[in-house]
Design a protein that fits this description.
The protein is an alpha/beta fold. Helix 2 crosses helix 6.
Length: 271
């Protein structure tokens, strides 16, 4: 309906200002951090996208813009609920103004309400999808960073490597750890590998199988593996659970493991 489209375009500036005032008055922490100029420019872009879609009859501009906003705002730490409330505030400003402007024109008001419903739903859906994708990407990046920090192989001496394990170990993480470990053993020509389990919350049958697999792979490269940091409560848990480490050597402390490794190397060199 052309008279509604024309009215919407005509009132974009005034509606954007009113929407900004309402958003700030609502006390949203995210919007309060933005300058008024930046907030006004952002709101006007949304209103202009709505104007474009009113003219074409398809929610394309709103979907594209809200998707971009979702990705951007997620990276900036905004809550999706804040953005959705801001979107709803903008639509409500238009509804309030049109209620007065088209007081005696129910067809115009009905046209706007139908358009509002269609555009707000499409915009909210695009925003939500973009937020989820962005958050998943952030979570994955954080997981990668955590892995890099928690799966480092440290050289204790020229032939001795230490693999400190931290946190829970699932199948995917075990595979990555094994890749890192075997690469380090091969590159450094290690003869002894100490696997430190001090940072593991529990060693059950699943974790034990990963440790045994890692130890077997280390042996295939010509190095001798051992577990260090086996605390009394961990040893008790393993014993009660019937955990089978396949004859893998275990030592209580890292210091004990290092002395054991150096002694092992001394004996091999003395032969």
């Amino acid at each position: 309906m052309q008279r509604v489209i024309d009215a919407f375009q005509e009132e974009i500036d005034a509606n954007a200002v009113e929407a900004c005032e309402r958003a700030l008055a609502a006390g949203s922490p995210f919007y309060s951090r933005l300058s008024r100029e930046l907030l006004l420019a952002s709101v006007k872009r949304v209103f202009q996208a709505v104007a474009n879609d009113l003219a074409t009859g398809a929610p394309e501009a709103v979907v594209a813009l809200m998707g971009a906003i979702g990705s951007q705002r997620s990276a900036q730490g905004a809550k999706i609920s804040d953005i959705l409330r801001g979107l709803e505030t903008g639509f409500q400003v238009v509804t309030d103004r049109f209620a007065e402007r088209f007081r005696d024109d129910p067809e115009a008001r009905l046209f706007w309400e139908m358009a509002r419903s269609r555009l707000s739903y499409a915009g909210a859906a695009a925003l939500s999808d973009a937020f989820l994708v962005a958050r998943e990407a952030i979570t994955q990046a954080q997981a990668e960073e955590i892995f890099e920090l928690s799966a480092r192989v440290l050289p204790l001496s020229r032939r001795v490597l230490l693999l400190p394990l931290v946190g829970r170990i699932d199948g995917a993480r075990a595979e990555r750890i094994l890749e890192v470990l075997l690469a380090a053993v091969s590159e450094r020509g290690a003869k002894v590998v100490l696997i430190d389990v001090t940072g593991l919350p529990v060693v059950d049958e699943v974790v034990a199988s990963h440790l045994v697999q890692a130890a077997s792979a280390v042996r295939l490269l010509g190095a001798v593996p051992a577990l260090v940091g086996v605390r009394p409560n961990l040893a008790r848990t393993m014993a009660v659970g019937g955990v089978d480490l396949g004859g893998l050597a275990t030592l209580a402390r890292l210091e004990d493991g290092l002395h054991w490794a150096l002694g092992l190397l001394g004996r091999s060199q003395g032969r």
